[in-house]
Amino acid sequence: MSGSDQKQVLGGIDAGGTTFKCVLAGLDGEIIARKRIPVSVPEATIASVTAFFREALSMHNATMKSLGVASFGPIDIDPASDSYGTILETPKPGWASCDLCGRLSAALGVPVHVETDVNGALLAEMAWGAAKGCASAAYVTVGTGIGAGIYTGGRLLGHPVHPEFGHIRLQRHPKDLGFKGSCVFHGDCLEGLASAKALQDRFGDPAALPADHLAWEIEAYYLAQASLSLVLMSRVERVILGGGILLADGLIEKVRVAYDMLMNGYVKDRATIELISTPGLGDDAGLKGGILLAMRGAGD
Q1: Crossing angle of helices 100-108/42-59, nearest 10°?
Q2: Its domain of life (predicted)?
Q3: Nearest Cα to 167, choosing from 150, 153, 180, 186?
Q4: In degrees rounded to 5, what are phi and psi of residue 189?
Q5: How confident is the model at residue 300 (pLDDT cuts 50, 70, 90)?
Q6: CB–CB of 39/21 below 8 Å?
Q7: Which partner for 129 in 47, 160, 224, 280 could form a disulfide, CB atoms 3.0-4.6 Å apart?
Q8: Residue from 296, 297, 292, 288 nearest 22 by CA
């Protein structure tokens, strides 16, 4: 079959710190192939990603028009920068100064468009998920670290750099005064107190903790403060809390209760159950973010 008979498709990657989730999608964003690739060193990881896309393209008799990447960071997201798409300083072995998008573009022969993982997830949630129809929203991802994306006034806040929201300072929970925090830079910042690593450091495996464990009251208190800061600072219409930690039974409800206590009736734009939510796209938020970046890139 000739190249002119091949259909055009898009590629999307949710480039996480431990797993790259890769998809091939139609121009309408409908996923037609997907694969999870464990992260190792850049050379092996990029080779596996490239092999997936080549095989999927061959199987579907397709050509890729554009590739979108929602990536772990820090990463250069300034399209005008010479290092656009390059991973910056990171403790991940071998990944510092890796030209992730340049390598993918060269290997696949397509333009690559990149955002941070949390910004990608936020844009996808605004297009198709929990913040669809909202003019402003924030997405907070809680994992090994904590990051946030904020969309208001028709753009991503801080672009082409991005907020370091995970390092804001918090009021300590009265039953959590002895823990010094897990952040190597600031100790007891948001990330140092509420990340998955912070929970692990003082309570053990979060997945093994019962729903009534004190850890979840403490975690909810810190995530409520984070939500409060976002609402008071930018008056966003939706705060989306994502990441595996939010799968804990009853945690989102505890966050809402703590938020109402902390807000104390001051801002009453909307009900808290509407304001604070988990991702509507679930675990696919970052992946759909990659597809959305590719869709926008294909339209340029």
Answers
A1: 40
A2: Bacteria
A3: 186
A4: -80, -175
A5: low
A6: no
A7: 280
A8: 288
DSSP states along 102-136: HHHHHHHTS-EEEEEHHHHHHHHHHHHSTTTT-S-
- Mean pLDDT over 1-23 rounds to 87
In terms of C-beta distances under 8 Å and separation of at least 24 residues, what long-range contacts does 20-23 make, across chains too?
20/45, 20/48, 20/49, 21/286, 21/287, 22/49, 22/52, 22/53, 23/287, 23/290, 23/291
- Polymer length in residues for the chain: 300
> How far is the C-alpha of 179 from the C-alpha of 192, rounded, in Å?
10
Cα 186 off chain centre by? 22
d(CA 11, CA 225): 37
Cα–chain center distance at 183: 19
10 Å CB burial of residue 90 (0-12, 13-18, 19+) is middle
Q: Cβ contacts of residue 70 below 8 Å, gap of 6+? A: 12, 13, 14, 15, 114, 115, 116, 117, 119, 120, 121, 286, 287, 289, 290, 293
pLDDT digits (tens, 9 = 90+) for 90-144: 878 899 999 999 999 999 999 999 999 999 999 999 999 999 999 999 999 999 8
Residue 87 CA to residue 100 CA, distance in Å, equals 7
Per-residue pLDDT, 1: 44
What angle, rounded to 10 degrees, do the helices at 196-203 and 214-234 form? Answer: 150
Task: Provide the token pair at 132.
Answer: 């669809």
Residue type, 33: A
Element (H, E) at 90: none
Phi, psi of 187 (to 5 degrees): 70, -95
Q: Which of 130, 164, 133, 149 is nearest to 252 (CA)?
A: 130
| Nearest partner of 115 among 250, 292, 298, 299, judged by Cα | 292
Domains and CATH numbers, the chain: 3-116 (3.30.420.40), 130-278 (3.30.420.40)
